[in-house]
């Protein structure tokens, strides 16, 4: 199960120079994981994500979604794709029709369709009063949410998001990150194309770096940071987000210290050098991951233990 890309190569038909847009790309994404895709303009990021829901078909290699070829209808239903300029994905007369279009196209009707529209509104915090408004009368942030709502109403197993926070103010960005984390908790696999790694690094299990259509790196975020790949995240912002995540985790536990439990990690305040900052990032990220794993094991004990 999961997204599987293996030995994917693609050259756009009619290309005079016949230079591959993608060459021998391979990676996997499991349900509930978040993968960051980054790279310079023209490195092949958009071409790659268009293969994930069947807009483009592999010329060489394979792309599968939960074992299905990505171009098949059953596979496309599983993958929701939100482009950077989400306004171009809007077309309906009103917001209700916009959100309902996707699921109705896959055969959802009547009360189930109504439920999905309302459920998605609630999930994204959209005001029901918007349903009869034209999507083109909304703010940029609201239009992006409506486009995302139309995708979520299809109940995809995977979300592919191209620069999803561009144009959003800091408060809207923060809310969006929390929404992504809630989607992960629901078991939705997420692919985010971004140049701003620091925004999503605390949520990511993997980073994929493209250079001129080739795979320059794919692996754990801590390995990416340790090996000094570019683009590099703003370390101060990563530190802030990781510390915030630690505080939120402690708050969710009720803020009570339990005997035998390690305290939530805290950041040092005297960090000025990049290597020290990197050490803090890796240490805090590892502590948060260990804490999360411990909570999972406690809630799901081994029956043979």
How is the topology of this model organized?
Elements: E1 3-10, E2 22-29, E3 34-39, H1 45-52, E4 60-65, E5 68-69, H2 73-76, E6 79-82, H3 95-105, H4 110-124, H5 140-152, E7 158-162, H6 170-185, E8 189-193, H7 197-200, E9 206-211, E10 214-219, H8 221-226, H9 235-252, H10 274-299
Parallel strand pairs: 3-8, 3-9, 6-7, 7-8
Antiparallel strand pairs: 1-2, 1-4, 4-5, 9-10
CATH architecture of the largest domain: 3-Layer(aba) Sandwich
At the first level of CATH, what is the class of the largest domain? Alpha Beta
Strand-pairing-aware structural class: alpha/beta
Number of domains: 2
The CATH H-level superfamily of the largest domain is P-loop containing nucleotide triphosphate hydrolases
Q: What general form does the structure show?
A: globular
Number of strands: 10
Rg calc: 21 Å
Give the N-terminus to C-terminus distance in angstroms: 27 Å
Q: In what range is the share of β-strand residues?
A: 15-25%
How would you explain this protein's 3D organization?
- The protein is of the alpha/beta class and 305 residues long.
- It has two domains: 3-233, P-loop containing nucleotide triphosphate hydrolases (Rossmann fold, 3-Layer(aba) Sandwich), CATH 3.40.50; 234-305.
- It is 40% helix and 18% strand.
- The chain is built from ten helices and ten strands.
- It has a six-stranded mixed beta sheet, sandwiched between helices. The protein has a four-stranded antiparallel beta sheet with strand order 2-1-4-5.
- The two termini are 27 Å apart.
């Amino acid at each position: 199960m999961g997204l599987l890309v293996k030995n994917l190569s693609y050259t756009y038909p009619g290309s005079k120079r016949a230079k591959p847009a993608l060459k021998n790309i391979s990676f996997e994404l499991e349900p509930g994981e978040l993968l960051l895709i980054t790279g310079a303009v023209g490195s092949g990021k958009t071409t790659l994500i268009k293969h994930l829901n069947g807009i483009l078909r592999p010329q060489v290699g394979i792309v599968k979604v939960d074992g299905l070829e990505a171009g098949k209808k059953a596979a496309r239903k599983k993958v929701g794709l939100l482009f950077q300029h989400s306004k171009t994905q809007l077309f309906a007369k009103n917001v209700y029709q916009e959100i309902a279009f996707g699921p109705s196209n896959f055969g959802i009707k009547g009360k189930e369709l109504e439920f999905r529209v309302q459920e998605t509104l609630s999930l994204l915090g959209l005001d029901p009063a918007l349903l009869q408004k034209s999507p083109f009368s909304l703010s940029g942030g609201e239009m992006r949410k409506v486009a995302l709502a139309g995708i979520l109403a299809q109940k995809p197993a995977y979300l592919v998001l191209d620069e999803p926070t561009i144009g959003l103010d800091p408060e809207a960005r923060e809310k969006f990150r929390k929404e992504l984390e809630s989607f992960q908790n629901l078991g939705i696999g997420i692919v985010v194309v971004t140049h701003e790694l620091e925004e999503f690094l605390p949520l990511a299990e993997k980073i994929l770096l493209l250079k001129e259509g080739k795979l320059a790196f794919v692996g754990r975020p801590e390995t990416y940071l340790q090996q000094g790949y570019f683009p590099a995240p703003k370390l101060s912002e990563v530190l802030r987000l990781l510390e915030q995540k630690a505080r939120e985790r402690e708050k969710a536990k009720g803020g009570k210290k339990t005997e035998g439990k390690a305290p939530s990690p805290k950041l040092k305040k005297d960090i000025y050098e990049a290597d020290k900052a990197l050490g803090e990032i890796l240490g805090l990220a590892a502590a948060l991951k260990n804490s999360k794993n411990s909570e999972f094991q406690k809630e799901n004990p081994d029956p043979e233990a």
